[in-house]
Amino acid sequence: MSFSFFKQSRPKTPQELAKAVKDSLMALDSKTVAEVKALEKVNTFSSIVELLKIPLNDIRVSISSANPTGNLALEEVEKNIVTMRTMLSGDGEIEPSADQVAQLTLEICNEDVISLLFHKLPTLGWETRKNLVHCWSILLKQKVDSVFCCAKYMENHLELLDFLVVCYDNKEIALTCGHMLRECIKLPTLAKYILESPSFELFFKFVELPNFDIASDAFSTFKDLLTKHATAVSEFLTTHYNEFFEQYEKLLTSANYVTRRQSLKLLSEFLLESPNSNIMKRYIAEVRHLKVMMTLLKDSSKNIQISAFHIFKVFVANPNKPRDIKVILAKNHEKLLVLLHSLSVGKGAEDDQFEEEKELIIKEIERGHGTTGQEVMFLYPPYNILFLFTVGDKALKASIDLTIASKSESLLDNYYKDLQEFSSGLQKETSVIRQVASRAVQDLPARLESGAAIAQESLEAVGQAIDNVGSTVSEIIGKDLNFASNDGFSNSHLDGDSGNRDKDLNFGGNAKPYSRIEALVRGLQCNIRTYCDEVEESDYNEWTMGFRVEEKRKEIERLVEENGVIKEIYDEIVPKIVDEETFWCSTFIK
């Protein structure tokens, strides 16, 4: 005969559990919040209590006696949340029932329990909140009859997402809400809502909160919003480009080291997403963003310098750099080169790739400023091919010498053959380039017309430069490769018919004659800086005092008729940048 003194309670069904959770949450009142905090303090400092020989149970009893009903309700909530966690994920020995999980998910949505759980978060204890986060991550993924019930519930109660965002201001529940929010962000529709919501702007404040744990958690959520769903992010940035990057610039220039570093890394991540290619093109075309990256290159932190470089390099490598970007890079090229030469990530495989990228960027900055020697580009119209010759005998010879020294003997013969092919084609290309350039000068547009006389001299220099390249390569083959041969490079092979060079550069009988002085004057007139830059002559003030626009009207009309570019520049900068009198005064004094 067996005697049962304690009746074993029957496990709750999913419907009963959902209703029990709802009833216990509704039983909580505002006084319970203070009691929870008091109980947590008692648990935290229990060791101190023991040292003081104060009975811990007496303290708990005294706290509970203040509001026994509220405390019982809190305990009931805790018990129900633990039961819900067990039903959703099992207890370690028994696996959860798929039918029960699906039924519980459906009942929680039908009973409107989710809204209660969110709003009662400040009342719950730390352990209960942790269990709730675990349950929430499971509930969101549950599909009942091909519908994600909890996700659908959130789509119908979007204000709950705003509630979770705002809770970053409550340090008691900030981390709990952050976890639950990131679970929601995994769903594209919910992430898109937060991006478009006014509450999104609060993240720019939350990521700089003084509490490091909360600020870091807020940044994790912020990062997920900008990286989880590329298409939604692209649409958002396209629509809110100016507002977003105005706020983001504050993060990049923050006094907080962690904020600067995290925001730099995040920027490179979401800008390089393929759906954001148009955003990236727009970003790297703006001077204000380039200035921020250049400032960060000077940061005292090496890590920030490296992160800034990976964005700065995109500005420099952009083949379609706007004029303003080119001007900034040119004006600051010396300082930039000093910074880049001193920049290093350390040792290892990453260092090799970084050094390669750095060298390319350095060369591009030097090339853009014209410090790598004479660089001449020609467009060959029949095939639309861009030819680039970098002339500088010492640099060329040093480069080839270095390459040869690093290669094995078995490859030298291949180099020799390649150079032979290069020499045989170079003479033909030189002749074609001269002819094409000669024809092109006849139809120069107005802005380039003033360079005709200078172009003649430049083309002459190009011809000589190409001959110098041939001489250098010939010398390398004969001396450095020890492959002396009558069939190799020779000066005569590259010189061609030097007597015909002057004939080629005559530009034909229809070319417009220019003296060099006249060409330079027209060049100044066609340069926008002539009218925008300050004149440095000492007698300029005296000149301007006696200058009257009305007295020069006929001369102005003649100038505009002869050179249409002046009128184009006038319409562009007057009165936006300079006034009419200053413009024409600059024209005549220059």
UniProtKB/TrEMBL annotation:
SMART domains: BSD (SM00751)
Tree of life domain: Eukaryota
Listed InterPro entries: ARM-like (IPR011989), ARM-type_fold (IPR016024), BSD_dom (IPR005607), BSD_dom_sf (IPR035925), Mo25 (IPR013878)
BSD domain span: 543-590
Pfam family, one: BSD
Signal peptide annotation: none
Entry-linked Gene3D superfamilies: BSD domain (1.10.3970.10), Leucine-rich Repeat Variant (1.25.10.10)
GO molecular function: protein serine/threonine kinase activator activity
One of the protein's GO biological processes: intracellular signal transduction
Listed PANTHER family: CALCIUM-BINDING PROTEIN 39-RELATED (PTHR10182), PROTEIN MO25 (PTHR10182:SF3)
Family from the record: Belongs to the Mo25 family.
Name of the protein this chain belongs to: Calcium-binding protein 39-like
